[in-house]
Specification:
By secondary structure, the chain is an alpha+beta fold. The chain has 4 helices and 7 strands, in the order E-H-H-E-E-E-H-E-H-E-E. The protein has a 7-stranded mixed β-sheet, with helices on both faces. The protein is globular, with a radius of gyration of 16 Å.
Amino acid sequence: MPGPSSSRTPLVLRELRWEDFSSRRDSYYDLYEEVRENPGLGMTLFRQRPTEAEEAAWFSRLYQAVQQGDSVVVVAEVGGRAVGMVSISGTSPGSAGLESSHVGVLGVLVDRGHRGQGVGSAMILRALELARRRFERVRLLVFETNVRAKALYERLGFRTTGRFVGEVKRGGRYLDEELMTLDLRTWQPPPEFRGTAPGSPP
């Protein structure tokens, strides 16, 4: 079944694989070039690009958390290549035993050439469905200026519950971040999104 990314190439949603590391590393590294072209890009980055060893360590921790059931990850694949990833993880490493362990933090990254095609919304929907097994609430941070992303999150059921003023300093510019939350205990996929997430269940 064709997915939202293309009428010709199906979009498949699947679980995280170890061999996804290289494409996810490259996608993250590309953000550093993209932010030079667009300083308002709605992604928080490290001041210095992480080394490959640091990225490998991060990916290893994520992969292990998925295997242990502490994180939910959905990967979008088009034409045999991973083009996006959504993760919902605990509020901090080893958070399973904390009083905040019922809260998951959502992160999403779609490769530049596949944005605006429904890839992100399809991944988020699948991740939220899977996250019900592990979390009761999900939260995220979004740049106040990222109107397009905020509109999508609101359509999916997230609501703004706070704001961090000047949370990001990029060059000489301060950017606000909004906190958005979703209660998974009562959440249902909005009618407009039902039946839109293609691929086999991860």
